[in-house]
């Protein structure tokens, strides 16, 4: 695993936003432990997400990911890029299920810029080429100038 | 009752506390690695008056922060979301979470009390092949400060897919 760099390394400032700009991709191999952790943190105890026996009895090959786990992971990549607290909108459509062993990859690109306001397209895809989520987001970016004024650290 | 008659049904109003432990553990669960969700000094350095929450936290905030003595008097006409979904599936059918949207009006911070209200905004039924139907139910939830200032609007779309039994 690469060492965690300071957040500022990838933070997008208003001055630097341009259409076609892309966020650093994050990727994560989905495990059953992820599903159990998300179930506990969210209170979503639908057995399809943690009980292999029940999932298979229902005709599924195995347990599968909560849509909102995937949406949460994609949002994490998004806020790493635009900054925490800058989002004004985040909308996702759940297209396919994510299965343990899938490597989830975030794809986030800027589709519009108007001053500090940006629109982004965000997707979560798997290493098998399956699209799990398609979505859109809008953010009101911090400017370099105001960030320097606020602390300059 | 036709599914479309559910339009206008309200969900029970709720008061939700935003607390530090749930926010920290939820951030880990969605792989939100920013230190602002874990450390008060990191949040302060990033300009937040208190620890902020991950972008999708409010979807589940009521699971952690709804305490009985904080709740407003129950509107007898209000329907729990879980009961609503059970009712929609009474004839069988596969329930899917189709879409989810968040509109952020103000930051959500640890220590806040949020007031939640919800309504079934739209129900649409599409006919498919061989009598199959797809019902889309859109639920809007408004989270506000105790004085009513908007904080987050959540739009949840559920899909119920039914195939006609022979």
Could you describe the 3D structure shown?
The complex is a heterodimer of chains A (153) and B (166). Helices cover 26% and strands 28% of the residues of chain A. By secondary structure, chain A is an alpha+beta fold. In chain A, strands 1-3-4-5-2 form a five-stranded antiparallel sheet, with helices on one face. The longest helix of chain A has 16 residues, at 67-82. Chain A is elongated and about 55 Å long. Chain B is α+β, with helices and mostly antiparallel strands and 166 residues long. In chain B, 17% of the residues lie in helices and 36% in strands. Chain B has four helices and five strands; from the N terminus they run βααααββββ. Chain B is elongated and about 60 Å long. The chains are: A alpha+beta (153), B alpha+beta (166). Chains A and B meet through helix 1, helix 3 and strand 2 of A and helix 1 and strand 2 of B.
């Amino acid at each position: 695993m690469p060492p965690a760099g300071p957040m500022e390394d990838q933070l997008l400032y208003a001055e630097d936003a341009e259409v076609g700009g892309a966020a650093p991709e994050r990727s994560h191999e989905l495990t059953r432990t992820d599903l159990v952790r998300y179930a506990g943190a969210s209170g979503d105890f639908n057995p399809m997400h943690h009980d292999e026996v029940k999932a298979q009895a229902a005709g599924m090959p195995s347990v599968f990911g909560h849509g909102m786990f995937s949406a949460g992971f994609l949002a994490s990549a998004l806020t790493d890029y635009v900054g925490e607290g800058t989002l004004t909108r985040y909308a996702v459509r759940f297209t396919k299920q994510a299965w343990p062993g899938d490597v989830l990859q975030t794809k986030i690109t800027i589709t519009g810029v108007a001053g500090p306001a940006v629109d982004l397209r965000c997707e979560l895809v798997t290493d098998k080429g399956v699209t799990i989520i398609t979505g859109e987001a809008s953010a009101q970016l911090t400017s370099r100038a105001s960030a320097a004024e606020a602390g300059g650290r | 009752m036709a599914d479309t008659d559910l339009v206008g049904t309200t969900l029970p109003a709720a008061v939700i506390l935003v607390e530090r432990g749930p926010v920290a553990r939820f951030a880990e669960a969605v792989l939100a690695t920013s230190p602002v969700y874990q450390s008060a000094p990191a949040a302060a350095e990033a300009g937040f008056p208190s620890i902020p929450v991950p972008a999708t936290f409010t979807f589940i905030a009521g699971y952690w922060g709804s305490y009985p003595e904080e709740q407003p008097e129950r509107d007898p006409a209000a329907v729990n979301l879980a009961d609503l979904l059970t009712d929609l599936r009474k004839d069988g059918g596969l329930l899917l979470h189709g879409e989810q949207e968040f509109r952020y009006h103000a930051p959500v911070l640890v220590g806040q009390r949020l007031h939640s209200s919800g309504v079934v905004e739209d129900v649409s039924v599409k006919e498919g092949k061989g009598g199959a139907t797809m019902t889309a139910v859109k639920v809007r939830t408004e989270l506000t400060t105790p004085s009513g200032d908007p904080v987050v609007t959540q739009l949840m779309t559920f899909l119920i897919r039914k195939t006609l039994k022979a």
